[in-house]
């Protein structure tokens, strides 16, 4: 049986603020939007150019408090060709980023950036 990853989902409190982050900061494009006003929620699917895997932002109209991220959520990961330049760009634009770091065995170099809801996105140096 053929299987493939379709999307991952995060719930967002402020859809406009989240869309600005994922589009303007991370360079994602809106793939489609499904509005369900009778059920009071909207789904927006985003993807990086050329990627098939999507990020689903779920916006519940009546959510007044920030979501509890819990201790089970890990992170979303995005690969970049130049980690240092990307880190500098995000830092200079005032984004909430961690310091550059890496695994002790050299398997990965990375940093984290937070979206408006506090979700962590790991930015990883792509390998050749």
From TrEMBL:
Pfam families, A to Z: Glyoxalase
**VOC domain spans which residues?**
4-126
| Residues at the catalytic site | 122 (proton donor/acceptor)
Cross-referenced InterPro entries: Glyas_Bleomycin-R_OHBP_Dase, Glyas_Fos-R_dOase_dom, Glyoxalase_1, Glyoxalase_1_CS, VOC_core
Keyword check for Metal-binding, yes or no: yes
Write down how the cofactor binds this protein: Binds 1 zinc ion per subunit. In the homodimer, two zinc ions are bound between subunits. Binds 1 nickel ion per subunit.
Residues binding Zn(2+) are 56, 75, 122
GO MF terms here are: lactoylglutathione lyase activity; metal ion binding
UniProt cofactor(s) = Zn(2+); Ni(2+)
Q: Which GO terms describe its biological process?
A: methylglyoxal catabolic process to D-lactate via S-lactoyl-glutathione
Report the EC number(s), separated by commas if there are several.
4.4.1.5
Query: Cellular component terms, GO, for this chain's entry?
Result: cytoplasm
Q: In which pathway does it act?
A: Secondary metabolite metabolism; methylglyoxal degradation; (R)-lactate from methylglyoxal: step 1/2
UniProt lists the family membership as follows: Belongs to the glyoxalase I family.
Biological role stated in the UniProt entry: Catalyzes the conversion of hemimercaptal, formed from methylglyoxal and glutathione, to S-lactoylglutathione.
The name on file for this protein is Lactoylglutathione lyase
Native organism is: Alkalibacterium pelagium
Q: What lineage, starting at the top, does this entry show?
A: Bacteria, Bacillati, Bacillota, Bacilli, Lactobacillales
